[in-house]
């Protein structure tokens, strides 16, 4: 059974690109356009890992991660931040909120896949 990844990003281009990469690697993919949409998709699917942007309308990635981590059912779900925000304070905030990995866009697809497989234990 393939692992299910939720991609949360307000950029349709980024969502489609990351989804393409993940599907090519054999993962099942669900996409969401912001944190609110991401929560809805998380609650209605069995998600194994989340990839989230930071800057999004309606609900940003940091708020999204905080809400996910506050729920017992998702406290151990791996979260990867994929953002253009690469300053130390942003990375620190993402990690402090409970992200397992923080990648700065544009991330190398090979590196992203290796890290995701490691977080999912599918190496």
Tally of contiguous helical segments: 5
Q: Largest sheet, if any?
A: 5 strands, parallel
Strand arrangement across the biggest beta sheet: 2-1-3-4-5
CATH superfamily: Response regulator
- CATH C-level class: Alpha Beta
As a percent range, the share of helical residues equals 40-55%
Low-pLDDT residue spans: none
Number of domains: 1
CATH architecture: 3-Layer(aba) Sandwich
Provide the β-strand percentage band: 15-25%
- CATH topology value: Rossmann fold
Shape: globular
The radius of gyration over CA amounts to 13 Å
Rounded average pLDDT: 94
| Succession of helices and strands | EHEHEHEHEH
Strand count: 5
What is the terminal-to-terminal distance? Answer: 15 Å
Estimated structural class:
alpha/beta
Q: How is this fold's topology laid out?
A:
Blueprint: E1 4-8, H1 12-24, E2 28-32, H2 35-43, E3 49-52, H3 61-69, E4 79-83, H4 88-97, E5 101-104, H5 109-120
Parallel strand pairs: 1-2, 1-3, 3-4, 4-5
Keywords: Phosphoprotein
Pfam family, one: Response_reg
InterPro entries: Bact_response_regulator (IPR050595), CheY-like_superfamily (IPR011006), Sig_transdc_resp-reg_receiver (IPR001789)
Give structural notes.
The protein has 123 residues and is α/β, with parallel strands linked by helices. The chain has a single domain, classed as Rossmann fold. It has 5 helices and 5 strands. It has a 5-stranded parallel beta sheet with strand order 2-1-3-4-5, with helices on both faces. The longest helix is centred in the N-terminal third of the chain and has 13 residues. The radius of gyration is 13 Å and the shape is globular. The chain starts with a strand and ends with a helix. Pfam families: Response_reg. One of its GO terms (biological process) is phosphorelay signal transduction system. This is Response regulator receiver protein. Keywords: Phosphoprotein. It comes from Desulfocurvibacter africanus subsp. africanus str. Walvis Bay.
